[in-house]
Amino acid sequence: MAISSVICFVGKNVIQRQRPDAAATPFNFAAPFSKSKYTSFPSAHSTIAFTLATALAMEFPDQKWVAPVAYSIASLTALSRVYNNRHWASDILVGAALGHFVTKAVYNRGVKRHRPAKTFM
Questions:
Q1: Who has greater pLDDT, 24 or 94?
Q2: Which CATH number fits domain 2-113: 1.10.3660.10, 1.20.144.10, 3.10.129.10, 3.40.50.2300?
Q3: What is the pLDDT of residues 95-106, one digit of tens each?
Q4: CA 57, CA 64: separation in Å to the nearest integer?
Q5: pLDDT of 3-41, one tens digit each?
Q6: Which of 12, 53, 70, 95 makes an SS bond possible with 47, Cβ 3.0 to 4.6 Å?
Q7: Domain-by-domain residue ranges, the chain?
């Protein structure tokens, strides 16, 4: 979660997109690191929700109900951000992808590091 969050918050400060409750168009941007209210892209809620959903789905692959429930909750979290006029649709899509793919990469790297060594006997 730390890696996804750092990437998300750096992205917010570099991209500087204005939120939909303050703009009529999704094309309002400010210079990097310049305005504190231009923090729409990517969605941190979506990033964190999909980070947790992906981690749970990967940790419990034998429990068939975990992935659908986790991803459903993450999706509802993301969609609520658009419904409440706090994010554009692209904000939540990129946030979800960021959380999902960073978590998969970190998890798979950890699995590779902790695999037992092969013995040739």
A1: 94
A2: 1.20.144.10
A3: 999 999 999 999
A4: 9
A5: 999 999 999 999 999 999 988 899 989 899 887 789 999
A6: 95
A7: 2-113
